[in-house]
Specification:
The structure is a single chain. The protein is 67% helix and 3% strand. The protein is an all-alpha fold. The protein has one domain. Helix 3 packs antiparallel against helix 4 and helix 3 runs antiparallel to helix 6.
Length: 207
């Protein structure tokens, strides 16, 4: 019936949006579970941290779940919050989003070195500032990075206090000084990946 056409069209559009968001969440979770767990294993084998009950590669069984959920939280929240902050970020191409993850990798490599914790904090701060500069700058990105860093640090402080894992060279309430910059870099990289993935098929130019 012609009268039902707009309703069917709206229903089809809603189903497409749900499908896009569902796949986006799956890809973000997989990204966090694989890349995040791999980088955390790198930290374990670099004598940066230690898990109380390791299962595989020195990691606890719940590590992939934690990193997967973290990636979804960052990648989903950033594009949702952008309009509230008056920010209109043009989503990067997929290849550029993947390249941006190299900045996170670089921050992890610096944090795993044997240099002083203050030096690590300084170098990871420089990495973040350069990353922030090349990704468009903006105070909104700083706010998102700050919220991400505070949230991540609080979660890790709780896990450390619960005895789930520990840093071998902590500086403040069980965590190192350089940790905020790791989360800040993740905010920029995973946030942009989320902006790409959560585009609707229509926005990407498909009908």
């Amino acid at each position: 019936m012609p009268a039902s056409s707009p309703w069917l069209e709206a229903r089809g559009h809603l189903q497409a949006e749900v499908l896009v968001k569902g796949w986006a969440i799956c890809w973000l979770f997989l990204l966090g579970a694989v890349l995040g767990t791999g980088l955390d294993a790198f930290h374990v084998h670099s004598k940066v941290e230690h898990y109380a009950v390791p299962v595989l590669f020195g990691l606890a069984w719940w590590v992939p779940l934690l990193f997967g959920v973290a990636a979804v939280a960052i990648g989903y929240s950033h594009p949702m919050v952008d309009p509230l902050l008056g920010q209109r970020r043009v989503p990067q191409q997929l290849m550029l989003c993947i390249v941006e993850l190299v900045w996170v990798l670089l921050a992890y490599v610096v944090s795993a070195t044997s240099i002083d914790s203050h030096a690590k904090a300084g170098l990871t701060t420089i990495i973040y500032l350069n990353f922030w500069f090349v990704t468009g700058r903006g105070w909104q990105n700083v706010v998102l990075s700050l919220v991400t860093a505070i949230t991540g640090i609080l979660v890790e402080m709780v896990l450390v206090a619960a005895g789930a894992f520990s840093y071998l060279h902590p500086d403040f309430i069980g965590v190192p000084y350089w940790l905020p910059c790791i989360y800040a870099c993740a905010s920029l990289a995973v946030g942009d990946m989320g902006r790409y993935l959560f585009l609707s098929s229509t926005t990407r130019g498909f009908t």
